[in-house]
Fold histidine kinase.
Amino acid sequence: DSGQVIRIEKTLTDTGKLIQRCLADYRSTFPEYRFEGVEIDEPLPLLADGRKICHVLENLLNNAVNFSANGSLVQVTYEVLQNEVCVAVRDEGIGMTQEQIERVFDKFYRVDASNTAREGLGLGLAIVKGIIEAHDGRIWIESEVGRGTSVAFTLPLLGSTDQA
Ligand code: ATP
Ligand code: MG
């Protein structure tokens, strides 16, 4: 447990619209990257704190951009599982080892803390995890050194058992 108090104000939100809104800002901030955004056509209603979920996506996109080469591909994909939607942010960047993956959700952990060219505090993923868990979602990382990283999270869809 990250031990932080996160206040979530859930409102009725559509997953596709929410993601498109967050991605739109991102494309213009990093024109040198290729963002392949999800085109979610089906309505996927969520009870979620839209600003906080946007914050999650921004953090994951920031990491994808910070730990991969200029001009590489950053993909946002989604999948509807039973009662939940799974969103993933995938990059073709430097990747991480299994040992590193196990620590990146810790506060202030950075794989290469000596690299002063990257100014992160190592808080992003700890906060992201707190927000997703406050929504009763799960978050995990798959990564391969030198190949890239995928960070996926789930959010319960409206109408799933514990929200009905
Ligand atoms: P902050 O997000 O607080 O500005 P940060 O990006 O260093 O700083 P986190 O987002 O928590 O902190 O990430 C922790 C560490 O995990 C990073 O410093 C980096 O070493 C590693 N990491 C996170 N995302 C990726 C990624 N997509 N590819 C490779 N390494 C990553
Ligand atoms: Mg970060």
About this structure: The radius of gyration is 16 Å. The beta strands are 11-14, 34-36, 45-48, 73-81, 84-91, 139-144, 148-156. The first strand starts at residue 11 and ends at 14.
